[in-house]
Design brief:
By secondary structure, this protein is an alpha+beta fold. Helix content is about 25%, strand content about 30%. It has 14 helices and 29 strands. The strands form six sheets. Strands 9-10-8-11-12-14-13 form a seven-stranded mixed beta sheet, with helices on both faces. Strands 15-16-22-19-18-23 form a six-stranded antiparallel beta barrel. A six-stranded antiparallel barrel has the order 24-27-26-25-28-29.
Length: about 675
């Protein structure tokens, strides 16, 4: 034991010396690391290594430095090498070519803001948030006004952010700009951004084909007071059990690397049994904030910021919806995918485990919901090189298969990262693949850069003027407050005036009735606010208004269930037990007949529904049909256009609600088609 301990101490001492050399380079930028370095340098070898692991690494990660020290520069976190003799460590984060070159001189080429030669881009599109500009020099007042108007249009198309390619022609050819024209173009772009209340961040710089460089910059609006204009992005994190989903989310949102024994994942768990067995069994949401300059607002100082500070300092929020990986909790995963309304999906794989059954199942669900997704391979520090390569090959084979038909792209640098973010938002078949380690922080900077550049996919602006519709996915009983309902605002906005909110309808209950309730408090991301809008997750403290007797005026936690809604009384909502939907069967072992009873998921609704009627005699894998469902337990609130997923055993199907059928409506039997038209058979990914 003594020999083993001495050998371990010697090995750790070597690691300590290696890591301390890098930390010393970063400490020149931030004196807050000095006491930790001195403590590690004066301790015994074994104790120094333990102190380095327990204090120096977490502190460096919180400061945005990490184990291989990093420094946040204009939205990209770059690794810092030890300074060579005669060079300065001082970095000036200004958006000019001179300062970019001074940064480049101190950073490794593979991880710097500067990349290789620029590639040919697709021709510029009149729609979307991407704008090509060959140069912005000698701009008079009239042209400046036109440029500002154009920028406003691009920001509107991008829901608050736009991407500018400087030195690129309308045909997508990266001509490049010399140093003077590039600096003047950047200055003009900053003036344009200031005119519309936005900021410019340089993301990448590449060599032009004709001369100089091509710069890719992001323009992001500053949020107004109260969070108005805040860009929100939802990412559903799925993958097989023990693949590192919760650990990845914990590392990204807390800024502290994992210790290899479950330190980071503890921030995502909601129940004691999850902490005991290390497996997620519920839906949890954590937030990663980015400032207008692209820096992470969660941990940009010595201590992690509170949620209130993150909301105040962020111009963009990425909400991770951490879902279950075990097959036993598949219904909870489907509930999170349909109820949380995500923009993108993140498929997480363990490098040492490869593609598993639930990996295929979850990819199938993302495809069924038509969600663009990217893949993250974790634990690359744990898997041998041949095992990691087998995992990458297995994932690429699955994505290229005839059932998925996607194009995997292994992200290795900042240029590829930004290109993937742009194409994924445009609906391309591309699937970016990241290879990261939550223990040593390898490639986490690329993943953060990707999330920063990834634009929002859903447009909630037009829905904010509609009547209020709020889907409930959870309920609580808070002492001193009362019943609190949590969920997502799908339409409209809810605002407190003089401490009181609007009166809404809560329901339907088991009898199909709605209760009048008043909102008396609003929280979003665990922060008290005065207003929430469509597209935001929130929780409302509610109380009953009116009622003929004491029982009607009471509201208990048991009265609220998942699937209920809060609605504007002007909508005059009605609950229903039956609805007609256009469905497509992804897989069924045999055939589906009338009387078949799957579990139907529609937003936050999850209930068994029987097939009453359909316009075909039989349903098989790969067939489409018009089907009439009827809920078996209690009525629900549905609206036409709501996507649904139905499942039972290995059976999977998707569809869209076409018509809501009320009990007082006379419904005629469906006419059976004589010639049943079947779509190509789709082999299930999960079997």
């Amino acid at each position: 034991r003594a020999a083993a301990r001495a050998k371990s101490a010697a090995r750790l001492a070597v690691d300590l010396a290696h890591q301390t050399r890098y930390i010393r380079a970063a400490s020149a930028q931030d004196s807050r690391l000095h006491p930790y370095i001195e403590r590690a340098a004066t301790a015994e070898p074994f104790d120094a290594c333990e102190g380095f692991k327990s204090q120096l690494i977490p502190t460096a990660a919180i400061l945005g430095i990490g184990t291989a020290p990093t420094l946040a520069i204009m939205g990209a976190e770059e690794r810092i090498r030890p300074p060579s003799p005669g060079t300065s460590n001082r970095v000036t984060p200004e958006n000019s070519l001179d300062n970019l070159k001074s940064i480049e001189a101190k950073l490794p080429v593979a991880d710097s803001l500067f990349g290789g030669p620029a590639e040919q881009l697709a021709p510029e599109c009149d729609e979307g948030n991407i704008e090509y500009k060959l140069k912005l020099v000698d701009v008079d007042d009239d042209r400046f006004d036109r440029l500002v108007t154009q920028l406003r249009y691009r920001l509107t198309e991008g829901l608050g952010e736009a991407l500018y390619e400087l030195g690129v022609g309308d045909d997508g050819k990266p001509h490049g700009l010399d140093e003077n024209d590039l600096n003047e173009s950047l200055s003009t772009l900053r003036r344009m951004a200031a005119a519309v209340g936005a900021e410019v961040t340089v993301l990448h710089c590449r060599e032009g084909r004709s001369v100089g460089h091509v710069i890719e910059a992001i323009v992001r609006e500053r949020p107004l007071d109260g969070g108005a204009g805040l860009i929100e992005l939802r990412v559903a994190v799925v993958g097989n059990v023990d693949s590192g989903k919760s650990t990845l989310v914990g590392v990204l949102t807390r800024g502290q690397l994992d210790n290899g024994r479950g330190l980071a994942r503890g921030h995502c768990f909601r129940h004691k049994h999850e902490v005991d067995n290390g497996r997620t069994s519920s839906v949890s949401q954590l937030t990663l904030g980015f400032g207008t300059n692209g820096s992470v607002t969660n941990y940009s100082s010595v201590r992690p910021h509170t949620q209130e500070e993150v909301l105040k300092e962020s111009s963009k929020l990425v909400t991770f919806v951490d879902l279950c990986g075990h097959e036993r909790y598949l219904k909870t995963t489907v509930f999170g995918l349909t109820g949380a309304v995500p923009d993108f999906g993140a498929v997480v794989l363990g490098a040492n485990a490869g593609v598993q059954k639930m990996t295929r199942e979850h990819i199938g669900l993302l495809l069924a919901l038509r969600l663009p997704f990217f893949a993250v391979i974790t634990k690359i520090d744990l898997a041998p090189a041949n095992v990691l390569q087998e995992t990458v090959d297995g994932l690429c084979k699955l994505l290229k298969g005839r059932n998925v038909r996607k194009m995997p792209y292994l992200v290795k640098d900042a240029g590829g990262c930004l290109s993937c973010a742009r194409q994924l938002a445009e609906g391309a078949r591309l699937v970016p693949v990241f290879q990261v380690s939550n223990v040593n922080g390898e490639n986490l900077d690329l993943l953060r850069l990707f999330l920063n550049a990834l634009p929002a996919r859903r447009d909630w602006v037009d829905k904010r003027n509609d009547r209020v519709e709020f889907c409930i996915d959870d309920a609580f009983n808070v002492p001193g407050v009362g019943v609190v309902v949590a969920g997502t605002v799908l339409k409209g906005s809810v605002r407190l005036q003089h401490g009181q909110g609007p009166v809404l309808l809560l329901g339907p209950d088991t009898t199909g009735q709605f209760k009048r309730v008043q909102v008396k408090g609003i929280h979003t991301k665990a922060v008290a606010v005065d207003e929430v809008r469509a597209g935001q997750s929130a929780s409302f403290a509610v109380k009953v208004v009116g009622g003929h007797n004491k029982e009607d005026r009471q509201l208990k936690r048991a009265h609220v269930r998942k699937g209920m809604v809060l609605l504007d009384p002007e909508l005059k909502p009605r609950a229903t037990r039956a609805f007609a939907a256009e469905v497509f069967v992804l897989h069924h072992p045999t055939t589906i007949k009338r009387g078949y009873q799957p579990v139907v998921h529609a937003r936050t609704v999850r209930q068994v529904a029987a097939v009453q009627d359909m316009n075909v005699e039989l349903l098989r894998s790969g067939t489409r049909a018009r089907v009439r469902f009827r809920f078996q337990h209690y009525p629900e609130y549905l609206s036409p256009g709501t996507p649904i997923i139905f499942r039972e055993g290995n059976t999977r199907g998707i569809g869209v609600v076409k018509r809501v059928l009320y009990d007082d409506v006379d419904v005629k039997p469906m006419q059976v088609k004589k010639d049943e038209l079947a779509a190509p058979v789709v082999t299930p990914l999960g079997t």
